[in-house]
Write a structure and sequence with these properties.
The termini are far apart. By secondary structure, the chain is of the alpha/beta class. The model has no long low-confidence stretch (mean pLDDT 90). A six-stranded parallel beta sheet has the order 3-2-1-4-5-6. Helix content is 38%, strand content 16%. The protein has one domain: Rossmann fold (3-Layer(aba) Sandwich). The protein has seven helices and six strands, in the order H-E-H-H-E-H-E-H-E-H-E-E-H.
């Protein structure tokens, strides 16, 4: 209980700082993508990695981070959320810290529920632009899609459309 109150306090503070410091340059183009994935959707990693073709970037420039414990998907994802990498004071360590410290142009929050840890990881990930789904905390995303995340074809079509409108790909 106290841990959750503490995490909420930290999240609110860091969210405020993140929102005030985030600025998008007009010349910005998407060259590196991080995708935070909710395993409960059951979408295979190939779908996310194939976004590299649409963004015209090498597949290695896409980093996937899985939330959940789907044994089939765990074989496909190298980085999987482990609660042991978050201490009592909400400090990150291990692979989680490494993932968040990398610089990304675009973070895709591929989940649609309010989860304090998911949101905290998202705002701690170095990013220039954030995209997510309705149902998640709307303050962490710059663009929010009101579609079902399991409808991956519609998501992909809308993502590409918005990135072209914003002239980022």
């Amino acid at each position: 209980m106290i841990k959750n109150l503490w995490r909420k306090r930290i999240f609110e503070k860091e969210l405020k700082e993140s929102l005030s410091s985030r600025k998008l340059k007009e010349s910005f183009k998407v060259e590196k993508i991080a995708i935070l994935v909710d395993a409960s959707f059951g979408i295979e990693s190939d779908f996310y990695l194939n976004l590299s073709k649409d963004f015209n970037i090498p597949e290695i420039q896409i980093s996937l981070f899985l939330f959940g414990n789907d044994s089939q998907l765990e074989k496909q994802y190298k980085q999987i959320f482990n609660i042991k990498e978050v201490n009592y004071w909400s400090k990150f360590k291990g692979e989680l810290l490494s993932f968040c410290k990398n610089d990304y142009d675009l973070v895709i929050n591929y989940y649609n529920k309010i989860n304090l840890l998911f949101s905290l990881i998202s705002i701690r990930t170095n990013q220039k632009l954030s995209i997510g789904f309705k149902g998640a905390d709307p303050r962490i995303n710059d663009v929010v899609f009101d579609i079902d995340p399991t409808d991956k074809n519609t998501f992909k079509k809308e993502l590409i459309k918005y990135m072209k409108i914003l002239n980022k790909i």
